[in-house]
Amino acid sequence: IIAAIRENRPPAVTGEDGRLAKSVKATVAEAIRPLADEINRIGVQIAATTAAEEVIAQTARKGAPYEEQLVQLLQLRAAAMGAAVHHVGPDNRAGDILLDFDDTSVAAGLCVVVEARDRTTPMGRKAIASTAANAMSERDATFALYVSRTPAGLAAEIGEWAEGSCDGGRWIATTHEHLLVAIRFALLLHRMDQAERDRDVVDAHAVAEQVERIRTALRRVSTVKRHA
Question: Could you give the 3-state DSSP secondary structure of residue 153?
Fold first, then answer.
């Protein structure tokens, strides 16, 4: 040490490469090693989870949680309309949810199949009509609702609301926020069809005017949101 001081250099014990410095570095490294290992483990776990979520987001499994969300919503709301809610999607056949209106409801005989989609690939009228027809045939339904979680799942020709018909019956394509409106609209159309068949005392012309007002309002909402 005295020789090191005379030569104006740090002694071997306390210098940067001295025994003391090496001992301190080794002690600190040993002390923080468990923390470093834990940080590395958490980092690997987060990376794996993120990768798995990205894969799921690009596959059909992405739709399952959205189906469950719709089931919970419909179980709360559709019961008040006299409909029994059945989650049939897990069997991997066409159609995800069934709304079955019993004979005591205002829409006796109506069976609505719901296709729940959480995708960003836009679907047009032809594809939706084909999907609706398959779902109605598979589930013995008389009406189909094609519900996209976001507007990104519907083509420009659909917007946020479109109606059509196929061999199985009528269908409506819309977004999640208009789902309950679509169900009520299906009830109204069903009642109109019944009135036409039964030649009831219902003023079908007046009801038709109300239906057209609803359609116009929905188109205006879509236009305003698109411009906004």
Answer: helix
Lookup: tokens for 185: 């609209």
Place of tokens 């409801």: 105
- Per DSSP, 154 falls in state B
Q: Is residue 40 very low, low, confident or very high in pLDDT (cuts 50, 70, 90)? A: confident
Cβ burial 59-90 (10 Å sphere, 16+ → b, else e): eeebbeebbbebbeebeeebeebbbebbbbbe
pTM for the whole structure: 0.64
- pLDDT tens sequence across 14-39: 555 666 666 667 776 777 777 777 77
Residue ranges of alpha helices (H) inside the chain are 2-6, 19-57, 63-77, 125-139, 179-198, 204-227
Could you give phi then psi for residue 37, rounded to 5 degrees?
-65, -40
Nearest to 169 by CA among 145, 204, 196, 198: 145
